[in-house]
Amino acid sequence: MSKFDNDKVMPRYMAIAVVLTLIGFAVIGKAFYIMTAKKPYWTEVAGRLKRDSVSIPPNRGNILSNDGQLMASSIPEYRIFMDYQAAAFEKDDSLWQDKVDSVCEGLAKIFPTKSAEEFKRDLEAGRKKINGNGSIGARHWPIWPRRIDYNTYVGVKNLPFFNLPRYKSGFHEETFNSRRRPFGSLAKRTIGGMFGAKDSAYYGLEMSFDSILRGTPGITGRRKVLNKYMNIPVMLPIDGADIVTTIDVNMQDLAERALLDELNLINGEMGVAILMEVKTGDVKAIVNMMKVGDGQYAEAVNSAISYRCEPGSVFKVASFLVALDDGVVDTSYVISTGSGVREMHGRWMKDHNWRRGGYQDINVARTLEVSSNIGVSHVIDKFYGKEPERYVKGLYRVGIHEDLKLPLVGYLPPRIRMPRKNKHGQYENWSKTALPWMSIGYETQIAPINTVTFYNAIANNGKMMRPRFVKKIVKNGETITEFEPQVIKDRIAKPQTIKTMQTVLEHVVSQGLGRKAGSPLFKVAGKTGTAQVADQHGSYHSGVTRYWLSFCGYFPADNPRYTCIVCLKKTGLPASGGGMSGVVFHHIAEGVMARNLKVSVDDAFDDRSIIIPDVKNGNIAAASQVLAELGIKTNSHWNGSYAVGNPVWGNAERRTNDVSLTKTTMNDNLVPNVVGMGAKDAVYLLETYGLRVKVQGRGKVKSQSCSAGKPVIKDSECVLVLD
Fold first, then answer.
1. Which of 91, 301, 353, 528 is most buried (most C-beta within 10 Å)?
2. pLDDT number for residue 537
3. Which residues of 352-390 are buried (b: 16+ CB within 10 A; e: fewer)?
4. Are 202 and 194 within 8 A, CB to CB?
């Protein structure tokens, strides 16, 4: 007999089982309810409480000029938001009501394009927003839709209410690394660019050296402790390294201004200028200008390395270098060009002066000096017509066809086709006219960077250097990797052939078509080029003639230091490689050489000379001190300085024997007149009035957007245009 009474025990077990079953169903039901109806709420709670493996972006490395100046650097930018569920809003909304008007007025001063009423309407909309979980008030409401710089962020952060701690005011920010180029558009296409919304490069050195510049992201754990987040570092980020380029900022600026002046003068479509150091192949300046939609010029495409076109007459140097090196002719070989028109295998070849009777009988040297199409094509067709592949192999040998393997995305190597024979011994891709026209720069496609590299080899006594854009990689002041100059070819032709070509190129400038590229101060050698180019549909007969004008050469010719190519694309006549591209070359060459001159100030005047400088308006106390040191008379002497906070503001006027310095009375409540001042004085003065200043251009202040004499609006923006 069992000692348990089943009649009493079983009902108890059944009752317990029923209770546990009900509890189980309740747990399952609650879990289902949390997983469905309450999922958004608990997802948000989980996100606030814990977030593991948060990526910490590293600082991107800088891109520097050859002398260490910043050409691209990362600076912080911010997006600003409001959290209306912060502590101050949850406990007491009256603080916000008291401060909202002053906050909106402050925002309107910082962002003048939006009124205080508009700011208030938008901020109130965020405060009243109903979220998916039923709570009122947005947690991440944008105060301003775009990124702002650090100074603007500080201005907003100092506004009433926003200056409270984050968990009281709800004001918070997101930080981004923004890429900035201190020198603006200088070498923009070569330096490169970044996508604004993400840390991703998409052209130039930024892209080619992205893995080096980017660095390695770090990892941190995130925990919420006592209503605040605490970051627990897991792995620290490794900042990117800096790269030092070969670009010289002063030479780059000089080349860009010279090119832009000529493009504006001739209404050109596109312009390219490359300045290369002869011995090393260092690219000191590279300019790519293209006319954009508003009629202005901008660096839109790196045409210097990617625009393959028929180079025109600058290619004739390669043709004659092959012929001279093969020994089929010498510079005394006489060519009969006749009246400037000759039939070449069924097509008419013309010289540029055919309407004036041509050049008649000229030798090889004179052929290059006057850029005779007939002279060059006659020599190449006569000695290579039966073996065109021998001529093309010669072009390959002298390096004009070399793939430079540049560290820039978008580079396109030259296209110079090699004749091919079929099994019957007949040329498949070749016609009898191909060789004559190829010899004068047609039937080929070459980017300007290849042409200037070829000419640089001639200047370098036959040694061809690979164009170098980056000198070294630096991390924390120490050199990690150094890129030495690379030799592509030790010799592109026989030494005597190079010497002969150097002499001929010097004569092209001194007594040929390249005179405008020359200088009375030093010798220049080079070659002009004028070629008709196809339109966007590949046609030469669309009714509008486009020209590719170029000049490529080096200076000083007796001891070459720099090689330069200038290319211009324009529509219609007049069109002259020597008269247009040569002029730009001239300005670049003289500007570069002038930087190396060291002249004593004593040489600038004699005992009878009176030199009165042009003095800008601004701090006349500083001007008075400088003029006194130079021994130049002024109408009165003023004392003052920035350091002690008492500059003397006024106007300067140059007179016959002295400089007149007149003090200007300033009103603390009215915008001062800074027209005629330099950027330094104008910015300093306006910022003392509480204005935010932006500067455009260089020189003296030509105009100011904040009208002089009007009441000062603190933190408003004033744009100065300098000229």
1. 528
2. 46
3. bebeeebbeebbbbbbbbbbbbbbbbbbbbebbeeebee
4. yes
- Give the torsion through C-alpha atoms of 259, 261, 264, 267, to 10 deg: -50
Residues 30, 22: Cα–Cα separation, whole Å: 12
pLDDT tens digits, one per residue of 204-250: 998 999 889 988 888 877 666 555 566 677 788 888 899 999 999 99
Q: Taking the chain, what is the end-to-end CA distance rounded to the nearest angstrom?
A: 117
Distances (CA, A) of 321 to 287, 374, 443, 493, 512: 28, 17, 18, 8, 18
The Cα–Cα gap between 348 and 312 comes to: 17
Element (H, E) at 480: strand 478-482
Q: Which residue pairs from 378-381 have beta carbons closer than 8 angstroms and sit at least 24 positions apart in sequence? A: 378/335, 378/337, 378/342, 378/436, 379/319, 379/320, 379/323, 379/328, 379/329, 379/333, 379/335, 379/439, 380/319, 380/323, 380/435, 380/436, 380/438, 380/439, 381/344, 381/435, 381/436, 381/439
Mapped onto helix, strand or coil, the DSSP state of residue 695 is strand
- The model's pLDDT over 543-577, given as tens digits with 9 standing for 90+, comes to 578 899 999 999 999 999 999 999 999 998 898 99
Taking the C-alpha atoms of residue 411 and residue 449, their distance in angstroms, rounded to an integer, is: 9
Q: Could you give the CA distance from residue 543 to residue 703 in angstroms, rounded to a whole number?
A: 44
Residues whose CB falls within 8 Å of the CB of residue 252, separated by 6 or more in sequence, listed in order: 183, 186, 187, 284, 285, 286, 287
What are 362's two structure tokens? 């000229």
Distance (Å, whole) CA 333 – CA 534: 34
Q: Write a three-state SS string for 487-542.
A: EEECCCCCHHHHHHHHHHHHHHHHHCCCHHHCCCCCCCEEEEEEEEECCCCCCCCC
Half-sphere exposure of residue 218, counting CA atoms within 13 Å on the CB side? 15
Any bridge partners for residue 712, and if so which? none
How many CB atoms are closer than 10 A to CB 245? Answer: 25
Consecutive H or E run containing 107: helix 94-110
* Radius of gyration, alpha carbons of the chain: 36
